[in-house]
Specification:
Number of helices: 10
Number of strands: 2
Structural class: mainly alpha
């Protein structure tokens, strides 16, 4: 039964199992990996990019955060419902056209709503950037939020997890690196994809920050890491849910 659910490369025999017993967790992981591979194989490029991004480390951290309005760690009921629909890839279009962009249709995966630069105070993209940036005020870092569904990167992001974040990091370094060097500053781009996957430099920076906080708070580093990603991703997902809801048709 096991061998029918995994690739031939991972198939096991009675002799190999007796010689080197395999834990149930490892076997389950191999089955899940094969199911995920099949899911990607039969999905559209946009859905492949979404699957790879949401499956990345810490991307789903917002789902395990304990709701706390006092700490700003909460979503209203309608925001949470929309966030779940968007996260699962269900149709979030709500209406055929964006109310802020003439002649621009809304798409089922919510890509336009997430990347639209109109509506809200200066545009939802700017607002989302500022809210996420403000969560890291004690450190001066260069934050950028990017979508793996953008047409310019979709050809890569549908095959490589984190491709959009890597491209954003490279772009930020190219644009701001020379100026920072002139000023004697270190240019550290924090690239975060809309589905919560962070770039390598962001992961490295959050890891160093977590090490510092863990020592001063006498907390396990793993707990602090979860708190950092959880807080940032709650802010990110909440702003995305609001952007999609802002483009819904009002109830009749």
């Amino acid at each position: 039964m096991f061998n029918t659910q995994v690739s031939p490369f991972n198939a096991i025999t009675v002799n190999s199992a007796l010689e080197s017993p395999i834990h149930q967790k490892v076997l389950s992981g191999l089955i899940q990996a094969q199911h995920f591979h099949i899911l990607l194989e039969f999905s559209s490029p946009a859905n492949r990019a979404r699957f790879l991004s949401v499956a990345a480390p810490h991307a789903s951290s917002w789902l395990s955060v304990v709701s706390s309005p006092g700490l700003g760690l909460h979503l209203e009921s309608n925001e949470y419902q929309m966030a779940i629909r968007w996260w699962l890839g269900l149709d979030t279009s709500g209406r055929s056209m964006c109310p802020f962009c003439p002649d621009t249709a809304l798409d089922p995966l919510g890509h336009h709503a997430v990347t639209c630069r109109h509506g809200g105070g200066g545009g939802d993209v700017v607002t989302r950037h500022n809210r996420l940036r403000d969560e890291g005020k004690p450190v001066a870092l260069d934050l950028t939020i990017t979508s793996p569904l953008c047409s310019v990167i979709l050809g890569e992001s549908c095959y490589q997890a984190g491709a959009a974040a890597l491209a954003a990091e490279t772009r930020k370094l190219h644009c701001n690196g020379p100026k920072c060097q002139e000023l004697g500053w270190s240019c550290i781009p924090l690239a975060v994809e809309t589905y919560g996957n962070s770039g390598k430099q962001a992961h490295d920076t959050f890891s160093r920050l977590a090490s510092f906080l863990a020592i001063h708070q006498s907390s396990p580093k793993a707990v602090v890491v979860a708190e950092i990603y959880g807080r940032l991703n709650v802010v990110l997902v909440r702003s995305i849910a609001r952007a999609i809801l802002a483009r819904e048709l009002p109830p009749s």
